[in-house]
Amino acid sequence: MRISIWRILMAGLIGTAMILAPATTANAATARIKDIVDIEGVRDNQLVGYGLVVGLNGTGDSLNNSPFTKQSLQSMLERLGVNTAGENVRTANVAAVMVTANLPAFSTQGSRMDVSVAALGDSGSLQGGTLLVTPLLGADGEVYAIAQGPVSINGFKASGDAATVISGVPTTGRISSGALIEREIEFHLGAQTSLRLALRNPDLTTARRIALSINDFIGTPTATPEDPATVRLTLPRGFNGNIVDLLTDIEQLIVQTDQTAKIVIDENSGIIVMGKDVRVSSVAVAQSNLTVTIAENPTVVQPAPFSRGVTAVEPNTTLDVTQRDTALAVVEESVTLQQLVDGLNALGISPRDLIAILQAIKATGALQAEIEVL
Questions:
Q1: What does the pLDDT look like over 135-151, one tens digit per residue?
Q2: Which end of the chain has the lower number of beta carbons within 10 A, N or C?
Q3: What is the dihedral of CA 47, 52, 58, 64, to 10 degrees?
Q4: Domains identified in the chain and CATH numbers
Q5: Residue pLDDT, tens place only, 75-95
Q6: In 3D, which of 81, 92, 85, 54 has the Cα closest to residue 71?
C-alpha cells in the first residue's frame, strides 16, 4: 500500500513539473533569428541628390536670398536652350531641394523606389510642386537612380494679411515610387560559402544561443559566435543547397533572447524606461522640493486733483517660497521590476526627480543596471 501511494505522489509531482515547465519557458522573451540579426551584405545604401521643384503657387524661394536656386534655374534653362544670362529672374514658383533615398538591397535596374524631398532655401511650402529630373548619388559619387515626379506633403500653410496658419511641415514631402534605379550594386549572396550574422542588440548570451540553435538544427558545427554582435555562419559540406537555402532554413528558428539590465533616460521629456532585469539593493532615499512662486501685480497710482503729477505704475511683487520635505524612505531590495517601480513611486516624486534619484542610487553602487542618458 505504501509503495502504491508513493508512486501516485511521484507521478503527480512529475505531471505538475511537466505542466509548469512550459509556462516558465513561455514567460521568457523569444524571437525568430530573422528578427534579431542582420545578414552581412544584405543592406540598404543611402543616396542623395540636389534638384529643383517647380510649379509652386508663389511659395518658392526668393531668388535674391537664395542665389543657389537662381544659379540652378539659369543653368537648367541654358541646357534647354533658353538664354537668361544678364536677365533679372524674379519667379517665386521654384524651390531648391535636397532629395534623399535608400537603395534597397538587391534592387534591379529599372525598378522604382520612394524618395524624400526637403526644401533647401526659404521656400514656404512645396505643395503642388513637381520635382524635375534629379540624379541620386551614392557615397562613391556614382549615379544610382534618377528621381522625378509630383511631391506629396503632409502639412499645409495658409496666410493672410494679419494671420498665418501652418499645419505639419509643408517644406518636406515624399514621392512614392519617384526614383528609377539605373545602376545595380553587385553582390552575389548565393555564391558565398561563409558570412556573418550581426545581432541588432549585441549580447554574448544571445549570440551563443543563436549558434547552438543553428548547430542543433543542422546537425553539424555550422555557426560560431565570434563576439557579442557577430555569429559566423559557414556552409557545411554536403549541404543540399547554397547559402540562401541555409539562411532560409535557419531564419525561422526560435531563440530565447537576453539583454543587459539597462535604464534609458530622456532628460528633455522626463521619460524613463527600465528593463525587466533591473535590480536595486536596499537604500534609503530622501527628497526635498523647493517651490518659488513670483507674482507681479502692478498698481496704477493717480496724482491728486489739480496737481502737476502724472499717472504712474508702481510695481508690486509677491514672492512665496514653499519647501516640502520628504522623510527618509527605504526602498527595499527588489526582486522584480514591478517591486522596484512600486518602491520608487511610494516616495511620491515626479519623473524628473526620479531621474536624479536613479543616478544617485547608481553612484552608491546599489543599482545593478546600466544608465543610458539620451
A1: 999 999 999 999 999 99
A2: N
A3: 110
A4: 45-181 (no CATH), 189-256 (3.30.70), 263-302+309-373 (no CATH)
A5: 888 888 888 777 777 888 999
A6: 85
